[in-house]
What we know:
Radius of gyration: 19 Å
Strand order of the largest sheet: 2-1-3-4-5
Bound molecules: calcium ion
Strand content: 15-25%
Helix content: 25-40%
Number of strands: 12
Amino acid sequence: MNKRILLVEDEPGLVLTLTDRLTSEGYQVESARDGEKGLERASSEAFDAIILDVMLPRKNGFDVCRDLRQRNVTTPILMLTARGQVVDKVVGLKLGADDYLTKPFEMMELLARVEALLRRAATPATSPAISSAETYQFDSIKIDFRRAEVDRDGQKIELSAKEFQLLRYFIEHREATLSRDELLNEVWGYDAMPTTRTVDVHVAWLRQKLEPNPRHPIYILTIHGMGYKFVG
Ligand code: CA
């Protein structure tokens, strides 16, 4: 079946050009002309990828992106930003976008990015785009992915390799409810022997190290009957 792409863009010319080109590449393209409509369609229908303009009437692309992720819509998102627009990649990724492309762009570049998004979505075990960001911060906690270091207000927090991988996975899947089985498979690997209890133990350790009050976590939430959700 053809991959379905939702294009959220208000410039009629660009909608036409992109729709034509993507359709000729074999994609099924639907479009929405403002942020509200885009959010509505992306939340209620299944798409394989979303191309989301930042400057949109009624609701901007960043807000659409954030709302989608809050609704647990995990469809990969490629954001289109205007030239000269200052985009803090890490902030953008925090909102849940997977990739960026600055306007004006070459059609080939867009096609390559869309293909990459779809490929990544097809292999969830590989790290999403946030792994290309070097740091991530929530409240006073800062994570340096390249150095594999975590600190709070400049004070280093010692994490084991597994704790760091688990935290990283949580950050990469921020706002998503993750089952213990998924965490076990993705962080420990399919061949690993540990049980889901291992996940609980590591989550407890992470909470001890990161949460202001580990008994009442505010970053790594327990979703009863489901698993965990990172909201830092
Ligand atoms: Ca626009």
